[in-house]
Amino acid sequence: MDVPDGAVLFDMDGVLVDSETYWHRFEDEWVFAAALADGSPAHEEVTGMPYDEIYDYLDERYGAVVTKDEFVAKYEERAESLYGEQVELADGIPELFDALRAVGRAIAIVSSAPRAWINIVRERFDLGPLDLVLSAEEIDEHGKPEPHIYERAADRLGVDPSECVVVEDSLNGIEAAVRAGAFTVAFRAAHNADLDLSRADVVVEGTAELRDVLLG
Predict the structure, then answer these.
(1) 3-class secondary structure for 154-189?
(2) What is the pLDDT of residues 169-187, one digit of tens each?
(3) How far apart are CA 169 and CA 188, in angstroms?
(4) H or E stretch including 115?
């Protein structure tokens, strides 16, 4: 397996922190139950997408019964306690970041989450210096599964996407990374245990296996 030895671009939700479990619960209890006119979306349809684009997607396919402003406000209200109090950092992430820095690898967080949510996670878990943080709200293009955010991240790091390793957990995120031309690692966890992640170049079960792929 020929893994690039360049920058490592981490998705945040479901990779660095276990937030997808909480977001799925929120979707079941409010988004799918109260905000839609009809239908039962699957979580993987929207996981990994920017939350304002989640509204557009769901409204088009299932019909929304709340305004976009109400929808966005609910997500923002939920995010404060979710990231500030509930989520936990994946085991071994600080040690992995230290090991990557030690061999000169650039580290980035590339996320559909707003910058404010990313900042809560960075500060709460003291993730240290990063070479890049890029939120979908900071690009004037569609988010995941479109490849733009990973293309922009590589550009800002001064490298080609093919030189980057992207670590993703969602189908939308994996698709974005693959379409950008990055080497794509699918991060398997409880929330995506039943999904087919084979679109990625390799699937890892947890941080220890991820470290083996990235550092040998």
Answers:
(1) HHHHCCCHHHCEEEECCHHHHHHHHHHCCEEEEEEC
(2) 999 999 999 999 999 999 9
(3) 6
(4) helix 115-125
